[in-house]
Amino acid sequence: METKPLLNSGDLRLVELGQSAGWLHLLAPPSFWQLTHVQCTQYCNGCGSREGVDVPDTFYGLNMTECCNIHDWMYQIGKTKEDRLFADMIFLQNLLMHIEVKSNRFMQYLRSYRAVTYWKVVRQHGESAFSQAKSPCTFH
């Protein structure tokens, strides 16, 4: 059986809007939207790190899992520290956009504060998760 690469040249920096209901406002590499459920669970684990910190996937009742999964995938396919920075910036953008679309003004304030807190922790402590995410991006 032929091995299919999941990453095309330049895929990380090419982001597009979501392709599934409820997540149409999120940005991700095209390869993320093409992942099967099995592939997504292999590489993505929601919010928090797979081997480390366990944090809620919700911000005051709002499901943020897909924002975190996109970030996990971008860490998986990223190669350089610039890729990590770009992944972290898209993560913040997606968190804030999802909050804006799905929240009233009061909840938007609370959830945005939590989003920025998550982002700061990722920026300060995410280097090891970025390094650990590396494995061959092919499936048989």
Can you offer a commentary on this structure?
The chain is mainly alpha-helical. Helices cover 52% and strands 9% of the residues. The strands form three sheets. The protein has a two-stranded antiparallel ribbon with strand order 1-6. Helix 3 (65-77) packs antiparallel against helix 4 and helix 4 packs antiparallel against helix 5 (105-125). It starts with a strand and ends with a strand.
Return the average pLDDT rounded to an integer.
Answer: 83
Please work out how many helical segments DSSP would assign: 6
Q: Give the SSE string.
A: EEEHHEEHHHHE
Give me the side-by-side strand order of the main sheet: 1-6
Low-confidence stretches: 1-9, 136-140
Radius of gyration, in Å, reads 15 Å
Main pleated-sheet profile: 2 strands, antiparallel
End-to-end gap: 7 Å
| Tally of strands | 6
Anisotropy-based shape: globular
Strand content: 5-15%
SS content category? mainly alpha
Topology:
Blueprint: E1 4-5, E2 16-17, E3 27-28, H1 30-33, H2 37-43, E4 58-59, E5 62-63, H3 65-77, H4 81-102, H5 105-125, H6 127-132, E6 138-139
Antiparallel strand pairs: 1-6, 2-3, 4-5
Output the keywords.
disordered N terminus, two-stranded antiparallel ribbon, disordered C terminus, 6 helices, 140 residues, mainly alpha, globular, single chain
Summed up, what is this model?
With 140 residues, the protein is mainly alpha-helical. The protein is built from 6 helices and 6 strands; from the N terminus they run βββααββααααβ.
